[in-house]
Prior knowledge:
Elements: H1 2-36, H2 39-42, E1 45-52, H3 55-61, E2 63-76, E3 79-92, E4 98-112, E5 116-127, E6 131-139, H4 140-153, E7 158-164, E8 167-172, E9 175-183, E10 187-192, E11 198-203, E12 210-218, E13 221-229
Antiparallel strand pairs: 1-2, 2-3, 3-4, 4-5, 5-6, 6-13, 7-8, 8-9, 9-10, 10-11, 12-13
Amino acid sequence: MRGFLAFLVVAALTGGALAVAAVTVVLPAVVSVAVRDSPFLRSGTDVRVDVDASLIGVFLHGSIDRITIAGDGLSEPSARVAAADVDLDDVSILDHSFAEASGTLSGVDLDVAGAGPLHLATVTLQGSSRTLEAVADLDATAAVAAIRRRLAAAGLSSEAVTLTAGRIDVTLAGRTFAALPVITSTEVRLEASDGLVSLPLVTLPTTGEWRITAIQVTPSGIRVTAVVILG
């Protein structure tokens, strides 16, 4: 009997050790490989994926505590990211949803319909797998260049575009007009109070997978807040 009990104890300890190893070593390795294999990350260099998993998270909640993704030179057809550092918390093993996301993308170049190429100094991310808020910062040089491209596309030759606190000053044919970015359900427009300047800057997707909720203009640049509907 004593030998049988000793066998049970050894079996229990061995099983417990295997469970801990599976959760803390094997599972993170498998998840790391799967994340690295995504097309967006495959394009990058020096991609690092750190996976934190615990017995409580896996067996009680069916989730991985945290996945940290960092990398350089990431790209897809319409976006290129110089550097990314993103944390995903409480990631479901079954449906891959996550309770919280946070992080920063640096040096983002986008091809935006109706606005041409845009360079964003930083994009800050916060939210969950259902709704993600992205706050993008365009420096003054990039913002002015994008606005002048839209004016030129509309047949308006601008002599100057200047960012000030809360507005955008546009000079056409020797006259300067104070204009504001106006958010509608379908686009972001540049509108002057006298109506002499009125043109779309960015066309929003009709499917509603993302929308712009706020635009802040300062002399140093433009901050755009968008909400992305993920699921």
